[in-house]
Amino acid sequence: MKFLHTMVRVSDLDASLKFYCDQLGLIERRRKDSENGRFTLVFLGAPGDDGPEIELTYNWDPEDYDGGRNFGHLAYRVDDIYALCQHLMDAGVTINRPPRDGHMAFVRSPDNISIELLQKGDALPPREPWASMPNSGSW
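Predicted structure:
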């Protein structure tokens, strides 16, 4: 058995692709539009990693998606948690749980999906402004 992907429903495909690709750094691997089913599937993966993917499901007919917290979270190992969090913050993404410990942070997608970022290898030494930054809501 091999883990293949996690599916999340998104309400705005452009905003989600901007977050996952432009801001978080994932790459689009493939896309499928279904005229009959009235949906688009976009599969994303981490650069250099042929492992599991995120499947963004965009239903063409408007639907309300709430309770993103019920999903749990996606987790990614990152090369430099401070650099990625700074990049995300500069792009307007709220860091819900800053990487105060140099090891873990949480952010949310435009559809309120919680994303855990974990430092590759050992935790980085605590660094400002992260070390003293409070949480910004639930994560």
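Summary: Residues 73-132 form a domain with the 2,3-Dihydroxybiphenyl 1,2-Dioxygenase; domain 1 fold (CATH 3.10.180.10).
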